[in-house]
Amino acid sequence: MQRALNEKAKDKRKSHVLKCAEQIIQEKGLENLSIASVAKKANLAVGTIYLYFPNKEDIIAHLAIKSRKVLLQEFQASTVHLEDSLEKIRGILLAYLDFCKKYTFYYELVSFYESGLGLEESKELLEASKKLTAFTANIIREGKEQGTIRREINEKEFAFLLWGTAVGIAQLIHVKPTLLSAELEKDNDHFYFSYINLIIKSLSY
Description:
This protein is 80% helix and 0% strand. Helix 4 packs across helix 6 (104-114), helix 4 (56-79) runs parallel beside helix 7 (123-146) and helix 7 packs across helix 8. It is globular and about 60 Å long. The protein has ten helices and no strands. It has helices at residues 2-28, 35-42, 46-52, 56-79, 85-102, 104-114, 123-146, 155-175, 177-184, 188-203.
């Protein structure tokens, strides 16, 4: 019983530390995150933080796992009432656009890890990524069985292509919004919708 209470207390403190780290990043940016700044924000000793996280990269990794879990939830919510697989693909791409707008902090964490920057992904972080890829691949597999998606498409490969291009388009919109809208003479949402239509056409017969 006591052990269970201790574990519960540890989990609660760990969640508190992560919440404080999240606040620091939102207020001051990733570059200002440190074990010392987290300790100060959490009102804990630096040594206490090290009991839960060996370095700041591990803190960022835990937040990135959370961001990918939130994204998967958004994907699931966007497709749960849809039957047609092509509409499900459209749904998850629209969900990703909404995710980028609604959860700016989580979107930046996803992009941070997708850009590499020499960081190693933990086993748990990789598993969170695999679930996103598997979710998309399963939709494509369903579409092939329904006859709405071309049978020669490799669902796993296309899932990676979809993820890579969606992240890239979102980053382009995020980094060069004014240039895009000026050059294309359309708002950035419509640019993203054009991307979605291209994806749907590439899957369709």
